[in-house]
Specification:
The chain is mainly alpha-helical and about 280 residues long. The chain has helices at about 1-30, 35-60, 70-90, 110-125, 155-170, 175-185, 190-195, 200-210, 220-235, 235-255, 260-265, 270-280; strands at about 95-100, 100-110, 130-135. About 65% of the residues lie in helices and about 5% in strands.
């Protein structure tokens, strides 16, 4: 046990020294005007190293990770498990969220075998009760694999899904973003924040770029909401309705864990529009 304690202390010293060294490296990167990328790389490296050293400490002490850990701890475990696997498969990073022990995965993979391997790996993570995988099969030409470089990443899977919604409504992606902006504005602030937090950065930027739309929290009528979208996106009301419906379908796919909460806060008229749109193909 003395030897184990000594090695564990050495592991912690290694972690501390690595943190100090990486901090100095990040400062140098900042000095070279690469602040954002330097910080992101530092964060990923720190998370991986911390998990690796904690795992080493567990093994040396004959211990294992607690199965009843908090969701944020489980998220870190899942990301640690997926890191080497995604590197080996040469796949872009996945969006990972854990709620009540259920891991929700979003992202793009090349084959169904990749998806199966990823799900199997996550199921092995201690504390994960189930896996809800939303993995799109097949990378498009706009996707960037890690091996091809990270300086010019392609659009996120959420951005591509919003583009698909725009195509379905025969509008531009920025016009679809107007519809998404209005739908989000119709949610109470608390739920709106929850939903927005699930959106990837490139989609949030599209929504944030929309010109300010008057507060529509009091709008309870579908036609009134459609009229607002039509004016803001400069499209006909018929096309605005198609766009809102397409965006609702996309949003239900992108934030499945929030659908029940969204339906709970929408007024009856708008709730029915959501249900009609999202069940049209069932």
């Amino acid at each position: 046990m003395v030897a184990v304690d000594a090695v564990s202390r050495a592991a912690r010293r290694l972690w501390t020294s690595s943190l100090d060294g990486l901090t100095r490296t990040s400062v140098r990167v900042v000095g070279r005007h690469r602040t954002i990328r330097g910080v992101e790389q530092a964060s990923r490296w720190l998370q991986f190293t911390q998990g690796h050293l904690q795992g080493l400490d567990y093994e040396l002490r004959g211990r294992g990770p607690a199965p009843d850990a908090a969701d944020d701890v489980l998220e870190a475990r899942v990301r640690t498990r997926l890191g080497p696997l995604l590197h080996r498969l040469d796949l872009p990073r996945l969006h990972v969220m854990v709620t009540d022990g259920v891991a929700v995965l979003h992202g793009d993979v090349v084959t169904g075998e990749h998806a199966d391997e990823i799900v199997a790996a996550v199921r092995q993570v201690v504390g994960i009760r189930d896996v809800d995988a939303h993995l799109h099969i097949g990378l498009t030409p706009g996707d960037t694999r890690p091996s091809t470089g990270r300086d010019h990443p392609g659009p996120s899977y959420q951005h591509k899904r919003l583009q698909e919604a725009a195509n379905a409504a025969n509008v531009r992606v920025d016009q679809a973003a107007v519809a998404l902006h209005v739908v989000l504005l119709r949610l109470p602030p608390g739920e709106r924040e929850h939903v927005t937090n699930h959106l990837r950065a490139d989609v949030r930027r599209l929504v944030e770029d929309v010109a300010v739309v008057p507060d529509i929290l009091r709008v309870r009528d579908v036609d009134a909401l459609i009229a607002i979208v039509a004016r803001a996106a400069s499209v006909s009301e018929r096309r605005a309705r198609r766009t809102v419906e397409a965006v609702m379908v996309a949003l239900a796919e992108l934030v499945p864990e929030e659908v029940a909460d969204i339906l709970a806060v929408l007024p009856a008229d708008l709730k029915q529009l959501w249900l009609d749109a999202t069940t049209a193909d069932d």
